[in-house]
Amino acid sequence: MALTREFKDTIQARAQRDPAFRVGLLQEAVEAFLGGELEAGKTILRDYVNATLGFDELARVTHKKPESLMRMLSSKGNPRADNLFDLLAKLQQREGVSLHVQAAE
Fold it and tell me: What is the DSSP letter of 26?
């Protein structure tokens, strides 16, 4: 299902004013990846990028082409682990956070 412009605008507005929301998006993406939900993780990261720095700025930070990054996080994208982890590291650095894994019982 495609997202409406209103929904995207709502996400962007919230992300711009609420740092905890941005960090929550990153956490949700990582949890999705760790849970084997690659598509959900990519979707959340794509939403995060679109709502915050945008793909052009992300390209500058990661030294990759914007088109490559968009393809990597698209529904048909199949990112290599090193590219995905580098992207997550740069986004954490941008937010000033460090996400950690904790075992749940």
Answer: H
User: Which pair of structure tokens corresponds to residue 95?
Assistant: 């937010």
Local confidence band at 3 (pLDDT 50, 70, 90 cut-offs): low
Give CA–CA dist 73/47, Å, rounded. 10
- Contacts of 6-12 with CB under 8 Å at 24 or more apart are 8/47, 8/50, 8/51, 11/47, 11/50, 11/51, 12/50, 12/51
CA distances in angstroms from 69 to 18, 22, 50, 104, listed in the order given: 25, 19, 12, 32
Name the pTM for this structure: 0.86
CA distance 85 to 105: 25
The answer to whether 66 touches 76, Cβ cutoff 8 Å, is no
Q: For residues 64 and 99, what is the distance between their CA atoms, to the nearest angstrom?
A: 23
Q: How far is CA 82 from the centre of its chain?
A: 15
